[in-house]
Write a structure and sequence with these properties.
A hairpin with a 5-residue loop joins strand 13 and strand 14. This protein is of the alpha/beta class and 360 residues long. The chain is built from twelve helices and 15 strands.
């Protein structure tokens, strides 16, 4: 009896697929790291990048595993965080702030097998790509709406780098395209994320009589200030009607999900290459949407029509209908001419209509 049981058990083991087949190897997910310059909040610069991260997860599922580190100061702290992410096995790292460019390049030299994406940077390497959006296109469209609703605007800005200067100038040109006497007052903060100071700057500008606010900082503080004062404001990065339901004119939004997903897929397929992308309305990376209740339908229709014109290449914010002057009266572009991408990327002047100065 015992011998028969042993023989039967041995036979079962011999034919059983459970015991006879080797375990199937599963491919580990692609680990992707993200570095954020401010905390993840309900709206703003970082919110849009984190939405992009979530879009990657939604599109690629268990093929990827993402992580992020928030509120990372630009400079030495950024290098430490980026290096940590590489050491932890992340094979693709997105560093989403201009001040992360040099730390990213430094770490990339030490991790040649890791792919890096320097968002808003401009220096590439064999394993470092760069990507940015033509924010100025959305700013011009916002300026058209602002110019239809007001003659004076305030602008709270972080740092006088070309990206920010482009936005100020495009916003002003957009306002002046429909309201030729419009003026824009600029306050420089010297910070990307400082909600108390952002709010204080907005309140100061409102006290000086501006009717609508725009900003290039990372929080919703300017929008909240406009809501509190019963004024108007242009949301930036993302829809901010949650904090400014009455004040919001529209939102200039940044859409990173498609780009992030495409680059992650390239790593998975082994086709990733260093590249430089500067995408705008046409590429779906910039759009204006989320119009507020105080914006007449005819203004909404006008702005959306101009957005379609930009996408079709019929409208360029930096094409001079008349001679383009800086705010010191010097001609920077002849009538009928258009600034080249190189000139836009190196922009270091403020256009006529802007009240403010650059530290040169």
């Amino acid at each position: 009896m015992y011998k028969n049981l042993v023989a039967a058990f041995a036979a079962a083991c011999f034919i059983s697929p459970v015991f006879s087949q080797a375990p199937v190897a599963t491919k580990a997910p692609l680990k992707i790291g993200f570095v954020y310059v401010a905390p993840v909040t309900d709206a703003g610069w970082v919110r849009q990048h984190d939405d992009g991260r979530k879009a990657v997860e939604a599109a690629l599922g268990d093929k990827v595993k993402t992580t992020y580190v928030e509120n990372v100061a630009e400079g030495a702290d950024a290098e430490r965080v980026i290096r940590d992410l590489a050491q932890q096995g992340n094979q693709l790292i997105f560093t989403s702030s201009f001040g992360y460019m040099e730390p990213t390049l430094k770490v990339a030299r030490d991790f040649p097998d890791v792919k890096f994406e320097s968002i808003t940077g401009y220096k590439t390497a064999p394993n470092v790509a760069v990507a940015n959006a033509r924010y100025y296109e959305g700013r011009y469209l916002a300026g058209i709406a602002a110019g239809r609703l007001a003659s004076s605007a305030g602008y709270v800005a972080g740092f006088p780098i070309p990206e920010v200067i482009q936005g100020i100038n495009a916003f002003t040109l957009g306002m002046r395209s429909v309201n030729p006497q419009a003026e824009v007052k600029v306050v420089w903060l010297g910070a990307w994320f400082d909600p108390p100071r952002e709010r204080e700057a907005a309140m100061t500008l409102f006290n000086q009589g501006v009717e609508v606010m725009a900003f290039h900082t990372a929080s919703t503080a300017v929008m909240s200030a406009a809501q509190e004062r019963g004024k108007l404001a242009i949301a930036y990065h993302s829809d901010m009607r949650k904090v400014a339901p009455d004040a919001q004119v529209l939102a200039v939004t940044h859409q990173w999900g498609a780009y992030y997903t495409r680059r992650a897929q390239a790593v998975l397929s082994g086709t990733w290459k260093s590249s430089a992308l500067w995408g705008g309305v046409k590429e779906g990376m910039i759009r204006v949407d989320s119009f507020g209740p105080k914006v007449p339908k005819k203004v909404v229709d006008e702005v959306l029509a101009r957005q379609r014109d930009i996408a079709a290449g019929k409208l360029h914010p930096f094409r001079a209908r008349t001679a383009l002057l800086d705010n010191e009266g010097h001609e920077v572009l002849a009538a009928g001419k258009t600034l080249s991408d190189e000139q836009i990327l190196g922009m270091n002047f403020l256009v006529q209509g802007v009240q403010g100065k650059l530290n040169k």
